[in-house]
Amino acid sequence: MSRKQKFLFGASIIVLAVATLIYSAVRETSAYFITVEEYATSAHAHDGKQLRLAGRVSDGSVKWDPKTLDLEFLIRPIPPKDAAKHLAADGGEAPVVAVAAVDEANVVKLPVRYNGILPDMFAADRDVIVEGKVEGGVFHAKTLLTTCPSKYEPDKYESEAAAEEPAQGDQRAALDSAPRIP
Question: Is this structure's pTM higher than 0.85?
Answer without folding.
Answer: no
